[in-house]
Q: What sequence folds into this?
């Protein structure tokens, strides 16, 4: 499996941009919150989002419910929607943000971006700022780059707990080895994930809200640019997944799926296309199998 | 090294193997780190087994240290390794000639291939297909406002987590029941190849559909063309050239170009992200003073930007 690592320069640029954004946020947030009417996100709402972000990276939901569940913006957006009182809108925004991470693969301890922070914090900021789903993609993506900083911090610091485990093993302390794996690293993870996410939502909601209002009157083309980017960026997520599946004898099915969607329009939804796809998969594999068998007999 | 013990045979109960499975399933990435990756999680998963099989403190120490080394694989499919290792530990505790090297070589020999196969199955196949279906439902048709159905989020979560847990339990128990040889048999059988090919068909279909549903590029470029005799006519790139070939040709070409840049030219996705946002911003800027049509790029079709060509 290929590792999805960015070039060092690209990572550094992304790091600087996000660090700059959040620097501005931390300085400008309190000031804007002070002269604004009321905070766009309450402290409890922000804390719930922070908690959700921690849980999506934690082992507590049978392991898989974290990384394969809450970690995905599709699921996170829905829950953020419940927190902010509009689950339909939340799921729409989360689904849009998730498009960019549809080809997301974390392998060997490297991640290209953090879908979970994009899903939890990104959806919360988009909802508080009143953004539509397409514009939220750009915002979520920018926030998602920040999450890699938390991931790399965790991956580096957690090595210390492995050495604690060694010490317990030396004493033959079975429980100690277990605790070194699941208790201390989780306390550390909670601190470095819950608090930054909560602060980002609580302070960021006002910044995003005010920035959108300001841009709407002074530079509407930037908001239009967000929407246009919302139509372009999904191509990256889809192409990331195509890197692994768009090859060999199954390539034509991509075009079949596209044309089917174009011609059927709103007459067919994604479930219908998936059923046609499953039927074609069955036919393809059956034909492939019989041909391979004939080749063996010949 | 173990000393073969005489006396009652040490037998693991099914529940011991299951307890180990759940410890791994929950905590495989609880202490994920650059030095050992899932090393401490493997040791934690082995604790019920060690408790049951070894009573001598020296043997307990040796077993804990044996399983604290570097380990990394795909947590669900890779569970066959744990199953096979548990079976080996059980034989070893009963005096079979299995040394540390034998156990280490099973772990380090299988973790790489199973990480590759496992990531292709779980993160590369099952997840994107289920995500596509969930996103397609939850986001709805972007042309129809409020069409989104949050059932897509719930459906994805239930199916994804259910399939992953089922797969993980199946692989774990296969590893324990069949041992190392069984793992190799599963890997060598053509079944895996068939499943991945079939998933490739389905995956490409839904990716094609998602491309149409979500990638939106509308270009407005109008030219005046001389049609002879001093007459001019409007020529619009999208309306007169691209749409007659195939409606939505531009998003398809754009996505294939993105794939080519990522897969063939090895452009970093983060660079593409930055470049596409810049393209969108430039495309959104109003260079020409046209009240009907503020910019050359659009998220959706703008009829007023693409006037019918004057006869």
A:
């Amino acid at each position: 499996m290929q590792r999805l690592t960015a070039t060092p320069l690209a990572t550094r640029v992304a790091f600087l941009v996000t660090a700059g954004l959040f620097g501005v946020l931390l300085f400008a947030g309190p000031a804007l919150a002070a002269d604004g009417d009321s905070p766009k996100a309450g402290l409890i709402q922000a804390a719930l989002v922070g908690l959700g972000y921690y849980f999506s990276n934690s082992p507590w939901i049978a392991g898989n419910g974290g990384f394969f569940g809450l970690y995905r913006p599709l699921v996170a957006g829905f829950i953020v929607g419940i927190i902010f009182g509009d689950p339909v809108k939340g799921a729409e925004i989360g689904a849009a943000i998730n498009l960019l991470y549809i080809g997301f693969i974390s392998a060997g301890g490297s991640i290209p971006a953090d879908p979970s922070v994009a899903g939890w914090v990104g959806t919360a900021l988009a909802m508080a700022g009143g953004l539509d789903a397409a514009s939220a993609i750009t915002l979520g993506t920018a926030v998602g780059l920040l999450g890699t900083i938390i991931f790399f911090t965790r991956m580096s610091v957690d090595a210390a707990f492995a050495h604690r485990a060694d010490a317990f093993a030396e004493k033959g302390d079975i429980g100690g080895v277990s605790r070194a794996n699941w208790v201390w690293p989780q306390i550390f993870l909670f601190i470095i994930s819950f608090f930054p996410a909560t602060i980002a939502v609580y302070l960021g909601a006002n910044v995003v809200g005010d920035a959108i209002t300001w841009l709407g009157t002074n530079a509407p083309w930037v908001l239009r640019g967000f929407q246009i980017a919302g139509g372009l960026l999904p191509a990256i997520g889809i192409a990331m997944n195509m890197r692994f599946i768009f090859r060999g004898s199954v390539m034509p099915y991509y075009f079949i799926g596209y044309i089917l969607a174009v011609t059927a329009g709103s007459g067919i939804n994604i479930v219908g296309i998936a059923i046609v796809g499953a039927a074609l998969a069955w036919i393809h594999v059956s034909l492939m199998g019989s041909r391979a068998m004939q080749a063996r007999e010949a | 090294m173990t000393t073969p013990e005489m006396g009652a045979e040490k037998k693991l109960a099914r529940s011991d193997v299951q307890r180990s499975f759940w410890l791994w399933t929950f905590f495989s990435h609880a202490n994920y780190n650059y030095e050992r990756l899932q090393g401490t999680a493997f040791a934690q998963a082995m604790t019920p087994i060690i408790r049951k099989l070894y009573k001598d403190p020296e043997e307990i120490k040796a077993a804990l240290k044996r399983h604290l080394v570097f380990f990394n694989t795909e947590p669900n499919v890779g569970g066959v390794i744990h199953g096979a290792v548990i079976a080996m530990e059980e034989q070893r505790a009963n005096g079979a000639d299995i040394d540390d090297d034998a156990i280490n070589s099973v772990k380090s020999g299988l973790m790489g291939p199973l990480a590759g196969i496992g990531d292709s199955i779980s993160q590369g196949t099952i997840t994107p297909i289920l995500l596509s279906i969930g996103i397609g439902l939850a986001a709805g048709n972007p042309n129809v406002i409020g069409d989104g159905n949050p059932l897509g989020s719930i459906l994805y979560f239930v199916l994804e987590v259910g399939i992953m847990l089922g797969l993980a339990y199946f692989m774990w128990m296969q590893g324990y029941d069949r041992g190392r040889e069984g793992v190799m048999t599963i890997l060598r059988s053509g079944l895996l190849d068939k499943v991945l090919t079939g998933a490739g068909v389905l995956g490409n279909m839904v990716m094609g559909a998602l491309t149409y549903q979500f990638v939106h590029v509308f270009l407005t470029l109008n030219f005046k063309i001389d049609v002879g005799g001093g007459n001019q006519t409007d020529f619009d790139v999208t309306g007169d050239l691209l749409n007659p070939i195939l409606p939505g040709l531009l998003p398809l070409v754009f996505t294939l170009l993105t794939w080519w840049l990522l897969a063939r030219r090895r452009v970093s996705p983060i660079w593409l992200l930055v470049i596409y946002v810049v393209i969108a911003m430039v495309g959104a800027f109003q260079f020409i003073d046209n009240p009907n049509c503020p910019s050359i790029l659009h998220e959706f079709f703008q009829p007023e930007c693409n006037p019918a060509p004057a006869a």
In short: The CA atoms of residues 257 and 273 of chain A lie 7 Å apart.
